[in-house]
């Protein structure tokens, strides 16, 4: 199916401007804040009390726990993030008329397998993309686009790691140039967030800066994933709106008869 970028953007925005989008935004922000605070706390714990206080003021948010506990919380946040993206992929690919609800099957159906697959898959895909960017930049974009739908292949279609990677590669084939816009957009979001964070660091308002940066990041990345979800639905040939319409039409026809 030919990928329509404009349609994916408009559809993605509609999907995010729903109760489901709001729930996903809050969840993403919570994970972001937990990850940031646990990293800061672990870093500060390495230094003696004197320098640690100065570093804490520069870093921002911390947790009232030891460095060891903070490290454990960071690992937990990473695993939780994998589970979150499985839920996100399922939630955002439903018909838009269903996005006012958040049923339990989104976060209970085969969550162990999906979380493990996304966690291990991330360990494979992430370094590969980074190496691609370091080498010549273009290979990094190519790999990022090729594996753009891995999360959806695992979360929505219940595929394993290898099968999910193959599925994502196949979905992106023939549309990588248009899909690269989404990858570049993700980079722009990260760049803007970095600039905002630096400005707050300069003004010695690290905590405020982290809160603002993480909030901006969460809004923009959830929006981006809404667009990616819409792109995924296009490329797999699934039209949830058509399904809904036919269902309504059948009901009306049965009433009329």
Automatic annotation (TrEMBL):
Domain (DUF7847): residue spans on this chain: 4-235
UniProt key word Ubl conjugation: no
Entry keyword annotation includes Transmembrane helix: yes
Transmembrane segments: 21-47, 67-93, 114-131, 137-156, 177-200, 212-233
Pfam families for the chain: DUF7847
Entry protein name: DUF7847 domain-containing protein
Key words, A-Z: Membrane, Transmembrane, Transmembrane helix
Species name: Halopenitus malekzadehii
Superkingdom of origin: Archaea
């Amino acid at each position: 199916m030919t990928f329509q970028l404009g349609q994916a953007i408009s559809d993605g925005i509609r999907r995010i401007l729903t109760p489901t989008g709001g729930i996903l935004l809050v969840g993403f922000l919570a994970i972001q804040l937990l990850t940031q605070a646990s990293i800061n706390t672990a870093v500060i714990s390495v230094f003696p009390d004197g320098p640690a206080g100065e570093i804490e003021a520069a870093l921002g948010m911390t947790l009232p726990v030891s460095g060891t506990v903070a490290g454990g919380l960071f690992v937990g946040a990473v695993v939780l993030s994998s589970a979150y993206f499985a839920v996100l992929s399922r939630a955002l690919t439903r018909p838009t008329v269903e996005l006012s609800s958040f049923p339990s099957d989104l976060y209970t159906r085969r969550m162990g397998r999906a979380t493990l697959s996304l966690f291990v898959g991330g360990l494979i895909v992430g370094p590969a993309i980074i190496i691609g960017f370091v080498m010549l930049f273009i290979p990094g974009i190519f790999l990022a686009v090729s594996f753009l739908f891995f999360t959806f292949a695992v979360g929505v279609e219940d595929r394993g790691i290898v099968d999910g990677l193959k599925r994502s590669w196949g979905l992106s084939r023939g549309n990588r140039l248009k899909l690269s816009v989404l990858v570049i957009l993700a980079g722009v979001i990260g760049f803007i967030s970095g600039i905002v964070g630096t400005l707050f660091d300069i003004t010695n308002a690290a905590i405020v800066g982290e809160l603002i940066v993480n909030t901006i990041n969460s809004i923009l990345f959830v929006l981006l994933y809404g667009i990616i979800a819409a792109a995924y639905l296009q490329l797999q040939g699934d039209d949830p709106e058509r399904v809904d319409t036919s269902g309504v039409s059948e009901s009306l026809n049965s009433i009329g008869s």
